[in-house]
Amino acid sequence: NTNVALIWIVANEKELWLDLVSDLNNWLCRECSFYIIKASVEEEKMNYTILAEPQIRRRRNKMTDTKQLQKEYWQRYAEICDAEGNPDFQVEAHPRHFQYIPVGKTGIQIVQTINTPLKMVASELFINNDIDKKIFDKIYTHKEDIEAELENVDWQRNEGKKSARIRVCVNLDITEKNNWDEAIKEQLKMAEKIAEVMRKYL
Q1: CA atoms within 13 A on the CB side of 122
Q2: In sequence order, which residues have a C-beta less than 8 Å from that of residue 184 and are 6 or more positions away?
Q3: Quick one: which of 54, 59, 63, 66 has its CA closest to 29?
Q4: What radius of gyration do the chain's Cα atoms show?
Q5: Which three-class secondary structure state does DSSP give residue 40?
Q6: CA separation for the pair 127, 139 (Å, rounded)
Q7: In the prediction, which pLDDT does 58 show?
Q8: Which of 75, 79, 105, 148 is the residue whose CA sits 20 to 30 A from 63?
Q9: CA distances from 88 to 54, 109, 184 (A)
Q10: pLDDT score of 59
Q11: Using 50, 70 and 90 to split pLDDT, how confident is the model at 20?
């Protein structure tokens, strides 16, 4: 059997694309391989950067380096939550790039995410089953007030999809383990602030 490789060349990276290709590579690892490559021009020279590619799988039961990093990162996150007495934002250390945290509202959660290709961590209000965007639009009417309390808010209405997101990001490279404590404390601070601010409008 011949493995097919699909290469997607982009000018700008988007986390949604990277997540999609990562999932496709996990689901279709034997049939097809997906790559995202960023193309840029510097001094009349084309440069290419691989943003997403299949993980090399030697054994089915062997955890990839990325999954191992994710698991260890969330383990450290859990340790810091315990040390700071912060049970409301505690997580289980699953080897994945996101963790859900309930906020006491059906269909609404805080999500902590890490992104190694984009070198960032994020906290977001995740609104599920909001196909008509009533919840998102209600919150968005308070955009100015929210942005007065939260910095660098990314409003993702996600037209045509069931979910919407209101996200705050910090640029930190978590492939460097000495950045973990700073990244985790930033995520906890962002999540606490998002929960505090959004409760006024939910």
Answers
A1: 22
A2: 73, 76, 77, 80
A3: 54
A4: 18
A5: strand
A6: 11
A7: 45
A8: 79
A9: 35, 12, 14
A10: 47
A11: confident
Contact between 50 and 63 under an 8 Å Cβ cutoff? The reply is: no
Token pair recorded at residue 42: 């510097």
CA distance 109 to 117: 24
Provide the b/e sequence for 98-114 (b: ≥16 CB within 10 Å).
Answer: bbebebeeeebbbbbbb
At 103, which helix (H) or strand (E)? strand 98-105
* Segment 139-158 mean pLDDT: 95
SS3 185: helix
Specify the residue for token string 């993702």.
Answer: 156
Question: DSSP assignment of 116-131, as one string?
Answer: TTTTEEEEEEEE-S-T
Residue 118 CA: distances (Å) to CA of 22, 98, 151: 14, 14, 19
Do strands 120-127 and 153-156 pair parallel, antiparallel, or not at all (unpaired)?
Answer: unpaired
Report which of residues 23 and 122 the model is more confident about.
122
- 139: confidence class by pLDDT, cuts 50, 70, 90: very high
Tell me the per-residue pLDDT of 159-169, one tens digit each, with 9 for 90 and over. Answer: 888 899 999 99
Of residues 92 and 184, more confidently modeled: 184
Report yes or no: 88 and 140 within 8 Å, Cβ to Cβ. no
